[in-house]
Amino acid sequence: MFARDVPPDVAALSAAETLASAAQLHAQRNRADVELLELALHFADLHPDPATVPGHHRVPGGERGVVYGGPGCPAVAEFAVAEFGAVTGRSTGSAAAYLGQALALRHRLPRIWAQVRSEHATAWKACTIATACLHLSEQAAAIVDAELAGIVDTVTPHRIANIVRAALWRADPAAAQAAAEARARQRGVWPGRTDEHGTTTLYVKAATGDIIRLHATLTQLADALADLGDTDPLDQRRAKAIGILADPDLTRELLTVAQHLTNTPTPARPQPLASAVPRPQAPPPPPCDQAPPGDSQPASTPQAEQTATAEQAATAEQAATAEQAATAEQAPPLEDQPHVDDRCEPRLDAEPGPDDEADRDAPHPSEPAFDERSEPLSAPDHNNTNSGDSGSNSRHINPAEPTTDAGMDAAARRELARKLAAIKQGAHSNHPTSGAGTTDNRTTDGHTGGAESTGRTGRKPARTTTLYVHITDQTLLAGGGITRVERFGPVYAARLQELLGHDQITVKPVIDLNNKISVDAYEIPRRIREHLKLTHPVEQFPYGTAETTHHTDLDHIQPYNFNTTGPPGQTSTTNLTPLRRHSHRVKTHGHWTVHRLDDGALQWTTKHGYTFRVDHTGTHPVADQP
């Protein structure tokens, strides 16, 4: 049906012959994987812990022995891992993990290793088991080895996790209990990766009471936005409220203005800015733990509907059991899940299907799988803008698809932005918290300025955030296009306004990365460090993956000559390169060499003579190798 470029020998194969060839290649690949594990083990044996080598003298920053496979595995000379990774196309961290898997299979999981060597088990699946057992004691690993040796190719990752957990409990119940309690006490806030729409997911693990209060505050701010004329759905207004909550003065001022608007006697709720057609008001739902009101109770008014407090939400949600809260946290709402007003109680998920793994914990943000976490299956769409409206007419939408609700038009959004800007100006005029804006340092155009003052209240200036935006001259001339924001990735130029928000902004001079900067001193000034960070976002080591930060080592490619007659400008953007500390030590003490090529790339040579070119496109092995 579609024309494809297929080699002639493959194009001539029938379906049966194609399957036979694929099976043969699969078997060959598995044998190659086993051979590579054997070579990794032999390479590790050739590079034992330097402390065990006769005549070895330890120097500061020199090579050490590191145990990569877990308890019971021998230590390996740490610099050897970097060279093994380079010749196999892996980063140093990935190579360390791979050698650890090989050593763990041989020393901790001998039954599984025997199955792998006899080609009765797939090598990569066995490596997965070795990684899962990395934190286990030798006794617990032996239990896993006995239970999984005969079923390596049939067990799923979910079952592996369960077996490992059970083995830990059987081998060391006290340690397992301590680990479980420590994980239960773990708290944190982790931002996810930014998608192509300029949206980032934030993961929060905190005390249930704090989450309830945060959710109630966000809902209260969402209601305040509705009072200003924001007709976007409730969830979208809650998302906007996060940006507002980041500014305490704006939060306080907005809630005060909303309270004033709510207490002002009006015959009906203010009309949305985007439409002059009145919106019918739905009666607020009764509290979840009470029966519907009778005829003797007074009817709810729009004002009462608008001033639903955070305490009401907190009281209702605290009534939910701990089991319900945990269920709601672990899994997203399903498509066939009837909507429940989220201000009354948490949304409970339906029973999982036969192919779902309901009891699998979400990956920890420090694990690689965290970066691959998918978005929730669906999100509720509140047709009514007020958070107290009934959810009976709600439907589920896919967050990846644009909503079909009319929402606010461009004029209404500009009017809402004008109101928020005025409220923020008033907030910072009354409660100045940052040096960027005070009533004593106003410019003629009405904007605030002056970085010296801290305001009449004497409060500490707010912490500032620096955004580095990479933009080309073509994008500037065209007025649109793609830009790159440090730590966020590619962003449409039109989305920069949303990224910056309505905050007080100081535009710094453009940094031209084509300029060459140098000093005569050994110490590296901040302007050179900033220049190198922007030029090389990732360390310039073969297959390096460490992100360049202000704390990354900057290595002098040509060693600095401390002689008073040494050449000037040795500390320069052309003679410095970012390296993580381990890579820096490998270069200094591991017999690796590096020099700068005429085109600006780096050419690295390993201890055993393998050469690699590292440039802005990545790592490339040089053709002529030993």
TrEMBL record:
Residues 280-290 have a biased composition (Pro residues). Residues 263-406, 424-464 are annotated as: Disordered. Transmembrane segments: none annotated. It comes from the Bacteria. Residues 427-441 have a biased composition (Polar residues). Residues 303-331, 383-394 have a biased composition (Low complexity). Residues 336-350, 360-375 have a biased composition (Basic and acidic residues). This is DUF222 domain-containing protein. It comes from Kribbella orskensis.
